[in-house]
Each structure stands twice: as structure tokens, then as C-alpha cells.
Amino acid sequence: MRGATHAKWAVCAVAVALAATACGGGGNSGGSGGDGSGVVRSSWGDPQNPLEPANTNEVQGGKVMDMLFRGLKRYNSKTGAAEDMLADKIETTDSINFKITVKDGWTFSNGEKVTAQSFVDAWNYGADLRNNQKNAYFFGQIDGYDKVHPDSGTPSATNLSGLKVTGPLTFSVKLNQKFSLWPDTLGYAAFAPLPKAFFDNHAAWVSKPIGNGPYTIESYTKGSQMSLRKWDAYPGTDKAQNGGVDLKVYTDNNTAYTDLTAGNLDLVDDVPASQLKNVNADLNGRYINTPAGIIQTLAFPFYDPAWNKADSDKVRKGLSMAINRKQITETIFQKTRTPATDWTSPVLGKDGGFQDGLCGDSCDYNPGEAKKLVQEGGGIPGGQVKIGYNADTGSHKEWVDAVCNSINNALGNDKACVGLPTGTFADFRNKITQKKMSGPFRAGWQMDYPLIQNFLQPLYYTNASSNDGKWSNKEFDKLVDQANAESDRAKAVKIFQQAEGVVRDNMAAIPLWYQNGSAGYSDKVSNVALNPFSVPVYNEIKVS
Amino acid sequence: MGRYVIRRLLQMIPVFFGATLLIFLMVNVMGDPIAGLCGEKQCDPATAAQLEKEFGLDKPVWQQYLTYMGNVFTGDFGTAFNGQKVTELMAAAFPVTIRLTIVAILFEIVIGISLGVVTGLRRGRPVDTTVLLLTLVVISVPTFVTGLLLQLLLGVEWGIIKPAVSTEATFSELIVPGLVLASVSLAYVTRLTRTSIAENRRADYVRTAIAKGLPRRRVIVRHLLRNSLIPVVTFIGTDIGALMGGAIVTERIFNIHGVGYQLYQGIVRQNTQTVVGFVTVLVLVFLTANLIVDLLYAVLDPRIRYA
């Protein structure tokens, strides 16, 4: 009798298991015909910060901002050009005072009208030091920023004095220095307008943000999933072509990729490096690999006298020529990097300031010339190049070792270059900010907005925020100031390119390669593309 | 018995404080949490200073520890960097991992002990050799290999399961991940049970029981198994804590948003509050599991008495 019950129990367990797995196998498919009501199932990573426009500085939160908000400008998903979105007019005569008119007829998804006040309130909030917004520096060009966001101490004002509401749909902005391309920065998420609900009940807003973009949030389970649905009353022309997007948090991009191949996911925007070899076979060509606004460079410690001698630029150029960029991008990165030939990015386009081949011979692999130049420059300081990198993320070791191999071969000295790992990224950053680097180190730049200014000023201007090598050059600074004051866009870009020429002549940093964005998608979706920030253009994806 | 329990509970206090202090120090040694918080781009110095103040990172470590422990006793585990309360993260993560652990432990108990009994009773026979070989294979293959292989075969090739577990993480979805998580321990349980059974089979009380003419099933379950289970129970008990903390690999492979995932995220982002909070709870789980094991001894073998 007892035996019988045991057997029955076992049978039940097996039955439950089978039933369960059978249910698991089916799954809910997102598609519902080509009527634009299908839902895109996309991979996601847990955002690092609370979802506020001025506090989102990484790509995962950025995806949501892109679906949820529309600002004064929007960057064209193909060309990267800043185009008017909510901005009716942005006028200036002196590149310092701007008059902005907001288009009529826009509302937030809760019905509230988007007015000039919505922008001014949002920007004041973003700039205020007391709100700990990580993108506060975006408002640094506006007059009065030093009062609401002092370098130390407590703020003495809550509002930016340079912002004035002049009418229901108009406001004026006064900058603290000339910056003709400033309107083009307004496509960045930090400049998005915020509804009253954000200020009235901040906690509720953060748990379920309300914006003015083509999507609204249906549900949000922090750390696991966000369901965005098409907002039918969206007033813009770039309405969602699908019924919505389900962003699913994955613990590992390998799992997301596996789920894509098993048909449980429609879009993965971070194909794991280990799968790049199989991706074309697995996905039947449904794979995108396009340059993003990210460039990797090697920076130098200009505060170290050994690296800042009169002839040091020859050593830097020699090292640059000793690196076989083509081979490394093909073998180590499986062509997901493109060898760099200037200090910006191809996403800027020709008109935006990208200049293919600006670097010239200095970026071509030429071992003979490399050896000669390094010798002329007085040899490598200390007899050995130690390339600094952080070992915890991004598998930097592989390419640093490859770069060193390349340098060693070119210089005919197998001790000429070694990698110098630092345990964690945080520690690496600490060493950089405390000026403790003794040789070249890995540096990378992901653009904030597709402007040539963004690739030069923050990185090479004297004492700029991300000038990690502390390079300083009067000629360069002068040209940047001049370009910012130039009201004609094309002329401004020209002068920026001249400034970039100064960077080249001094080899202020060795450009290595442009980073590509990669994405794979299922056969249920079409019209998938990555924008210049390597974020999928969700609202244009069609579900069949 | 009562005095023993009290003594054991008192012993747990220094262990608890020691373990949490160690973790706290280790996390703080790892580097600057603010740099981790700001990501690839550096925060401007004013914002960084402001954030440090908000998270109390500008104070000496000992003071941070005292404040932290003080808060823990009021049920406040601090705030993670994404603005969520750590207690909220725990409320989301622990139930999932507990379910996963239950599945794993059930596999260990049901399959592990049954196989152990079968092989222990048939020592040297083909069944025994086969199972021994199998357990050897399972022990020697790393968990992530087993996990990825099962995921690929069952999830992608044959489509029997979904390769990734959904947000709800129901019991049925956790069967395969649970089996993967349990696999190595399962092999150990089998081997432990087998040895123990084989040894006790020749014990006097078993011979007596057989001589009394008791049915074979009763001899095995009531007399042989009950006495052979002591080392197995010890192992399974301590394994509960190990499984919960060690689920990082399995949870990553199968996309389970449990304790392992949160711990991993916390470490990668240098999020002191999350790491210390979760480890504190795990330490408590470990200590409680050990206490229960010790108490179970007395139930299994009345000869073991506590003063």
C-alpha cells in the first residue's frame, strides 16, 4: 500500500514537470499581423540610476529616455543631424543670447501641455547641485550655473539666472560664453521637458515616468521588465510603428542571445563577443554592425616631464605608427571596431566634421618609420611603454596585449611594451584623476551629442572635464574659442577641424579605432536600425 | 535541549558581527563606490562630493559600519544606487532564490538519497559502478558547462524549455536550473549516502532487525536509512547556505533575477549597500541552517543528547 502511494507521487511529479515544461515551450509571441499593433521584445540591462532625464548617463536608461521623451531637437537616426522637434524657432544674433519658441499642440501623456515653463523647470532641476543629477554639467554653459552648481560648498541659488520665461511658449537663454552650435546640443535627453507631476510627486514619477514621447509606460518592474506601449494621442510625426516595446532585463548578454536564437526575443542590441563568429549563420544576416559615436584612444600623461619633452611628439607618432590597427580590429574584435583615421567619429558625417584620413601617415602601420621616429624622439621614456587599463570589464587585456605585440615587433624589441592592468575601473579612474599614470593609458570617449565640438573640447581643451592626460595647447584653445564664437555652422566646423589638426600635429592622443554598435534581430521584426548612439530606433521597428 | 539552543544562538552573535564587518571592509577596500556609480564618465567633483555625503561615504569606515549596523537593526538596509531600497531588492530577489534552492534541495534529497540507497545496497554490482561513474562525471564537469549545455539542448535545439526564466520565475520554470544548481551536490549526496548505507548494513541493529523478521522495507527505511542519514543531513543543511550564495553562475545562465544576480550587480557597480545587505542576510541563513542541522541530529539519533 505504502509502495503504491510512493509510485503515485512520483508519477504526479513527472506529470507536473512535463506539463510545466510544455507550457514553458510555447511562449507568447509578440506578433499580431502587420497592423502595427505587435509588440517588440527587446533585451535590456538594469539602468544604473533612477530614470530621470538629467540623471541618465548610460545606454540602458538612455533607451527608455529615447522612447519616453522628445526635446527641442532630435538627432536624425541616420545622419545624426540635429533637427527641430518641439522647437519652432531658436534665434540668436550674438551666439550668446538665444530666443526659443516651443511648438504649440504638444502635451505630456497625462494631458498636461508642454510649455516653456516645462523646459525651464526641468533644466533648473537638472542643474541644481542638491538634486545630484549626473548630467548637470550639460547646463554648465548657461549663465548662473556656478551659482546653482558651485565646484565646492552649497549652492547660493536654485534657478539658473540665464533662463527666463517670456511667454507661454517662449523663453530666453543666456550663455556664459559664445557657443554657436549650442542649439544642436538640445537633442540630448538631459534637455527634455518635465511635467508638473515630476515635481509634485517625485517618488511616484520615478517609479513610473511620464513623458511626451511616442510611448507610455504600461508597467515597470524594477530590475526585470518594462513594458512600453504606443501612445495613440502622440502629437509628433514620428509615431511608433509598433504596438509597444517590452524591455526585458537579462543577467547576461549570452542568455539574451540564446533567447533570440530560440525565438523568445526579437531584438538584442549587444551581441556577445563570443558569438560574433556564428552570428551571420545563426541569424541569417539579421545582424547590424555600424559605427557608433565612440572612439578609443591612448592618452598620455602630459604632467609627467618624461612624456612632455620637446621631441616627445615624435615618440608618440612613432608609437602610433607601430600599431597595426587593421589586423587588431579584424582578429581581436571580429571587425566590430573600425581603424581610426581621425579623432572624431564617422557618425558625424562629412558635414559634421568627420574627416577620413585626417591623421595621415601617423595612423598607418609603418614599422620602419616607427622605429626611426621613436629613436629621433629620444627613445621611449624609461625604456619601456606600459599601457594602463582596467582589468575588470570590457576585456581590455586582449587588445592591449595585441597593441604591445605590434609595438614590440615594429621596434624590434620584445620588452618595448607591456600592459599595466589596474584591478577595477574605479581604481583606474582614481589613478587618472590623481595624475598617477606613468605611461600611456586606455581612454575612450562616447559622444554626448553628434557634434565635432563634443569630440574635441571636453577631451583636449586646457583643464576640460575629460582631459585625462592634462594636455594643454594655446593654439588649440584659441581655435576652439574661435569656432564656438563663429555663427556660421559650416565655418565653425572648419575651424574645429583646424583645431583637430593641432591635436594631430602634436599627437595629443593616439587614435585607435571607432567602436561599432551591434544588434541582432528575429525574423518577426523589420526596419531595425541603430542610431548614432548605438541605441535601436525603437519607434521605427515594424512587427510582422 | 533548551539551554543548548540558547547557547548556540549566543554563539551566532560574534560570528554574525565578524562576518558582516569583514564583508564591509572588503567592499570598501575594492575602491571608490562613487566612481562605480558614475559609470564610464566621471562625475563632476561637486556632484561626486554631494553623492558621497548622501551615501555617508565621507565618514571613516568604522563609523560607516556602526551607522550601517544600527540601521540594520531597525530594518533599514540602505538604498541602492538606482534609488531602490535594498529591502525592496531583497523582497524581489530572495523568494526567487529560495524557490530555486528548494528545487535544488528536493533534487538532492529525492534523487541523491534514492540513488545512494540503491547503490549502497548493491555495492559492486553494475548499477553501483554505473552510478559511481556518473557522479564522477557530474562532479568533474563545471556547473556552467552543464548549464549552458542543457540550455542549448533543451532550450534551443529541442525547444522543451525556454532558455531564459521569466520574471515570475515559477517552480516549473526552475526545474532545469534547479537540477543544474543541484548537480554537483547531488553527486556528493549520492556518494555520502552510499558509503553510509554500505557501512551500516553490517551493523548489529540491522542484523537484529532482520532477525526479528521485520519486512525488508521497514528495515531499510526505519533502521538502516535513519541512522545513515546523519552525515547526509549535515551536508544538505550546510548546502542550503552554499546554494543560495553560490547561485551566481546558474542565475546568470538562466536569467534568474535572484540573490546571485543582485550580488553580482552590486559587486560590479561597487554598490556597498547591496553587497553588504545581501551578504548579511546570507550569513543569517547559513547560521540558521547550521543550527537546524544540529537540532536534527537529536531527532535522527536519540543517542545524541545535548546538555
Strand content of chain A: 15-25%
Mean pLDDT, all residues of chain B: 85
Weakly predicted, low-confidence segments of chain B:
none
> Segments of chain A where pLDDT lies below 50 for 5+ residues?
1-33
Which structural class do you get from the secondary structure elements of chain A?
A: alpha+beta
C-alpha Rg of chain A (nearest Å): 26 Å
Rounded to an integer in angstroms, the radius of gyration calculated over CA atoms of chain B is 23 Å
Biggest protein-protein contact in the assembly? A-B, 63 and 61 residues
Quaternary state of this entry equals heterodimer
- Number of extended strands of chain B: 0
- Envelope shape of chain B: flat
The backbone outline of chain A, from C-alpha atoms, is globular
Calculate the mean pLDDT score of chain A and round it. 88
| Count of DSSP-assigned helices of chain A | 17
As a percent range, the share of strand residues of chain B is under 5%
Q: What portion of residues of chain B is helical? A: over 70%
Largest sheet of chain B: none
Distance between the termini of chain B: 6 Å
User: What is the number of beta strands of chain A?
Assistant: 19
Tell me what the structure shows.
The complex is a heterodimer of chains A (544) and B (307). Chain A is α+β, with helices and mostly antiparallel strands. Chain A is 31% helix and 19% strand. Chain B is 76% helix and 0% strand. With 307 residues, chain B is mostly helical. The relative contact order of chain B is 0.14. Chains A and B meet through helix 1, helix 7 and helix 14 of A and helix 2, helix 3, helix 5, helix 7 and helix 11 of B.
Notable characteristics:
heterodimer, A: 544 residues, alpha+beta, five-stranded antiparallel β-sheet, four-stranded mixed β-sheet, 17 helices, globular, B: 307 residues, mainly alpha
Task: List strands and helices in order, with pairings.
The complex is a heterodimer of chains A (544) and B (307).
Chain A (H helix, E strand, L loop, with lengths): L1 H25 L12 E6 L14 H10 L4 E3 L6 E3 L2 E6 L4 E6 L13 H12 L17 H4 L14 E3 L4 E5 L21 H5 L1 H6 L7 E7 L3 E6 L13 E6 L3 H9 L5 E2 L10 H5 L3 E13 L12 H10 L3 H7 L5 E3 L9 H4 L14 H10 L8 E6 L5 H16 L5 E6 L2 H9 L7 E6 L5 H9 L13 H12 L3 H18 L2 E13 L3 E2 L15 E2 L1
Parallel strand pairs in A: 1-10, 14-15
Antiparallel strand pairs in A: 2-3, 4-5, 5-7, 6-7, 8-9, 9-10, 11-17, 12-16, 12-17, 13-17, 18-19
Helix pairs in contact in A: 9-12, 12-13, 15-16, 15-17, 16-17
Chain B lengths: L1 H28 L3 H6 L6 H10 L6 H13 L12 H36 L4 H15 L2 H15 L17 H26 L3 H8 L4 H30 L2 H6 L5 H10 L3 H29 L7
